[in-house]
Amino acid sequence: MRLLCAALSLSVFLANSAFPQTPDFNSPRVSELAPAAPNLKSARVVSWNIDRGGELDRVSAELEREPPDLCLLQEVDWNAARTGNRDIARELAARLHLNFAYGIEFEELSQQGDKPAFIGQATLTRLPIRRSRVLRFQNQSGFWKPRSWIPSSIPLMQRRLGSRIALITDLDFHGRLLVVYNLHLESRSMGRLQALQLDEVLADLRTYPPGTAALLGGDLNTKYFPSIFLRKLERAGFRSATGEHVERTHRIAMALDWIFVKGGIRLEGGRVRRDFRGSDHYPVYAELDGG
Q: pTM of the predicted model, to two decimals?
């Protein structure tokens, strides 16, 4: 009986430790699942909106075809009914032998059972993680908020608690600090909110010493006039993985997803992998050179 009670207590502990009862919206989860690679002189980078991870096996198989050293993922579910109550970030990191940071964007009110369900951003990497944090934008859309007259339990209504974020992760790369901004900017705007949220990111970067190496990537939701956002970041000293080209990254003709760098590092071989399946977005790949 004593052994049975001990086993039951252990199973309860493991279940609770695997899923915190009250996750802090503004404190990322950071998990080390594999040895870090501190001596990389170059790194393969991918940014991909994986559409919640609903086709996890396909997404995993595609990434294993061209394994990344640094992977910026958007729309990553955690304990959502629509994706089988799985921890998508952890499962992908384990399959790819990477460590990860995960930041909560929204609590999905229509997707939870006995535990809350979330969607957010995940940064997976072989590079050593110094720290990770969430920048929750001041400029937000009120579209997603629960309303008394909208049933929160209906998935189509997509009622949520939370707001858009940048997941910021400080990494060691080639003997120096690399600040990674994993972004999912607002979709319910003609461009004004996206621009204001980018301004918040640029203001955050200015808190680091001048010349700090920075990588900015993700789903910027640049549906309208994407070249304006390209120029905006170029004026801030960033260079795009695809140069001056505005590339379609969605099944529909939209340029939404980007990778940019500044601060003494460069991107080579930037390309959109439209042969990849598993999401309504296509991943952007590039090789990061530490200089």
A: 0.89
